[in-house]
Amino acid sequence: MNFQRGRQKEDPEINLVPMIDVLLVILIFLMITTTYSKFSELEINLPEAASDKPPDRPNTIDVSVSATGSYQVNQTSIQHSGTEELSGALRAAAGDRPDPVIVINADAQATHQAVITVMEAARLAGYSHITFATENP
Question: pTM score, two decimals?
Answer without folding.
Answer: 0.57
